[in-house]
Amino acid sequence: MKNNLICTGRQLLYCMICLFIISFSSNALETVSFQQSEIHGTITDIHGVPLVGVSILIKGTQKGTVSDFNGSYNILVNEDDVLLYSFLGFKSQEISTQGNTLLNVRLETDITTLNTVEVNAGYYTVKEREGTGNISKLEAKTIEKQPVNNPLAAMQGHLTGVNIVQNTGVPGAGYSIEIRGKNFINGSTEPLYIVDGVPFGGQSLASIDIAVGINAANISPLNAINPSDIASIEVLKDADATAIYGARAANGVVLITTKKGKVGKTRFQASLSNTLGQVSHFLDLMNTEQYLEVRKEGIMNEGFEAFLENPAFDFVWPDLKTWDQNRYTDWQKELIGGTAYRNKLQLSVSGGSSQTQFLISGAYQKETTVFPGNSNYKKASVQNNINHQSIDGHFKINMTTLYTQEHNKMPRTDFTGLAYTLIPNAPAIYDEIGNLNWENNTWNNPLASLLEDYQVKINTLMSNALVTYQLIPNLEFKTNLGFNKYELDSYRILPSTSRNPKLGYTAENYSSITTNSATRSSWIIEPQLHWKQQWGNINLNILVGTTFQQQSTDQLVQKGTGFPTNNLLMNLSAAKKLEVREDSESQYNYQAIFGRINFSWNEKYIFNLTGRRDGSSRFGPGKQFGNFGAIGIAWLFSEEVFLKQSPFISFGKFRGSYGTTGSDNIGDYKFLDTYSVTGFNYNGKTIIEPTGIFNPLFGWEVNKKLEIALELGFFKDRVLLNAAWYQNRSSNQLIGTPLAATTGFKSLTANFDATVENTGFEFDLQTKNIQGENLQWTATFNITLPKNRLVEFLGLETSTFANRYIIGQPLSIIHLYHALGVDSDTGIYQFEDYNQDDKISSLNDKNWIEDLAPQFYGGIGNTLSYKNLSLDIFFQFKKQMAFNSIATINAPGFNVNGPVALLDRWQKEGDNKPVMRAVSGLDPSVFNIIDYQRESSAAVSDASFIRLRNISITYRIPKKISKGLDLSVYLQGQNLLTITGYDGPDPEQSSQIILPPLRQMTLGVQLGL
């Protein structure tokens, strides 16, 4: 009976397969003409080099194919069809197929490529030559040459108006980004991130309660996006480019487009790379002899030398009395001198027909740190894309899904600060049998923090679908559907064994675990109508659409303290005391209607009008909606008769834009009375505290943007120059005003009559220096000269911001004491007494102003290729001021190490030295003096630099050697050399308690077949 059922099942399956084949064959016969024939051939450049990825389309249809790695192609055509061959950077050709079966094509180089290059503006694409807005683009070929883990890292230095700083050299951490400066007094500078049409939250959900020690509270969600999967990154800056995104684009827009499948044979690609990373610069610190010299001198200067012979002070001054006086440990090499390893493997398969294309990509990487221990960061990602269109081309659908898992296991403490301050004759880390050495409980072993387990697990899912249907000729309906979910789970355990035994801590009275579970999910629906019409020399494009978006965020932070044993630390239910540190749930709703009218006459005069009406749940009734829009114009004067045949100017465009965007970047529920759980109890009752006051009257911040730009091309576009001037004025500032503690509230959110202005110049130069048969050389240069100032702030003098901001000065200024050097008589630091009251105070004498914002920044790049060998070199530069080592060091004589510059100290009356006299650390009268020096003009110095940001050497192995495979090997370097006069670890990340960006070298191989 069972066998009969199996036979019957097999027969039924065979019948279904046969019916499917017959049905498929009949459908195919209906759509294929019996007059079709196959055309095949090879496509090369004028030098006979095969061209990969050339588009071959049957003119007037959507049917086509692309050339493979050998430049070969084949396509079915009708007898009277015409084939259109096109490839970026080459002149297109049209060839009739009549009477041909073999068509070998040679494409000529087209130096003028502005007509074909398109940039993504989000809701639409535009040819670069016809754009009215300011959009900077970074392509995959530039991203792929950098061994980075985050898309923002690949952008550093490459784009005008975009200032990006890496927060730490610890893997998985975040970046700070400003697009054309800081627009809002209390607001974030984070732009709007759009990944394949889906908004992507760039804000971290890490809890400061857990990640503060390693400075990873700024964990970047953008780490989930594999840079190798990115096709391009566009940054929208001016009003014309950003207004269509409305309020969400007040700080600019970063559009990330991932790679898609292409027409052609199925292609497999594999990439394997290994990276080594090390700290690029160590500080010149005192050795044991130098340290002990100033240490003893400080004790004698203050009259405590008698205590050096007192045994009671053995535990007070173990560095002078009980520790080995000849021992020396280079703590920089011990704690941050290791080598970080990153291993990355990526596999992909892609291909497809003229109707359906696909791409599936997967990557895995593991990265360690320079710290001791087994800390590591792991990431696995899968990205797939499918693109399909109907035979007639009326229906199209493009679907992309990204899923990433991250596991970050870091030490809770960043060892960098300890590496610079630990006493050079401190004891050995381990005793004779390999246990942590506490040296009779006389010091805190730095590696004890490795017992404080800190881990973060992140899951990111993002999916979108773009559905398009051509309703009638020239009218297209589109719907963008997107969803993303970001889940972060982290914990930190503090076992009693991680503390000095003399403290008497046990699992029951000390051990604790803090957990953070956070989720952010959002969806978006954007139906749109696109209409295009041409009447002679007039082109009209109209776009209308609407946006429905919702974002939900949940976060629960708990802390458990006191456990029967450290083995139960991962079980919160075993804790004696359980605190809810944070339990929050918020929902953000956003709706909008938008439209765009683009008018072009004779491809010379272009007018663009954009409008958007936004609605946000972050405002109270009557204030929820705001209207924003922009006008953009462009005049292609190189198309005028008097320049049409110019041998010198090949392209010229004048463009300008003006418009407004808004901002609701203030957080959720700020207009309501809000309360939060404190995590503490009072007589067994949970305590809540007020966190916000009811204020339904505040509304949208407004950012008015103006730009004027000139774009020029010389010598058939071998030299391209873009120059832009911009002015952004942000008013109606939403500010959280601090309130007195007696009110019971921390701050009141309200609109203030304050205006912040950002102006600047941006210059972008691209040159094609050599375009030979075997040798090519291209170069790029970009520079941004930004300026920020507070234009007005009504009532500033009487507000709580009076000591922070000054009308006419940038928001980035800091108030400092004016350092006057060391008094030659007393050996103590001196400061200017501005109000002449014979005492120094922060209220009256902190009047020295320094601006820490960059004065200018940019990059210089060169690409040279000779036959199969290519070399890319990119330098980043920045002119700026920053806090130097004085901001963190103590005076000489304290029981911490410091730079050898402390040796140049005052020692006797009449000495004219830059460093004050040595002190013991026991006299509190000098503590204020040291603090004043740390916050003085002496603590800020020039931190300008020129950095070899990236170098890449790639060799494509000839196919005769690789047996027909597409095989390349490459060597890449990141942050290899920094030229600067700055005295700290890194001029861009000036903190001396945070690991600086690492110097990295990568060796990799790519294989395609």
What does this structure look like?
The structure is a single chain. The chain is mostly beta strands. It has one domain: Maltoporin, Chain A. Helix content is 9%, strand content 47%. The chain has twelve helices and 48 strands. The strands form eleven sheets. It has a 22-stranded antiparallel beta barrel. Strands 10-15-16-13-14 form a five-stranded mixed beta sheet. Strands 3-2-5-6 form a four-stranded antiparallel beta sheet, with no helix packed on it. Strand 26 (577-601) and strand 27 form a beta hairpin.
Features:
22-stranded antiparallel barrel, 5-stranded mixed sheet, 12 helices, mainly beta, Maltoporin, Chain A, 1009 residues
Tell me briefly what this model is:
The chain is mostly beta strands. The chain contains 12 helices and 48 strands.
CATH topology: Maltoporin, Chain A
Structural class by SSE content: mainly beta
How much of the sequence lies in strands comes to over 45%
Instruction: Tell me the name of the CATH class.
Output: Mainly Beta
Within CATH, the superfamily carries the name: TonB-dependent receptor, beta-barrel domain
Low-confidence stretches: 1-34
Q: Count the strands?
A: 48
CATH architecture label name: Beta Barrel
Number of domains: 1
The major beta sheet can be summarized as:
22 strands, antiparallel, barrel
Large-scale geometry:
globular
Overall pLDDT metric:
88
Q: How many helical stretches? A: 12
Helix fraction by DSSP (H/I, runs of at least 4): under 10%
Rg is 32 Å
Distance between the termini: 49 Å
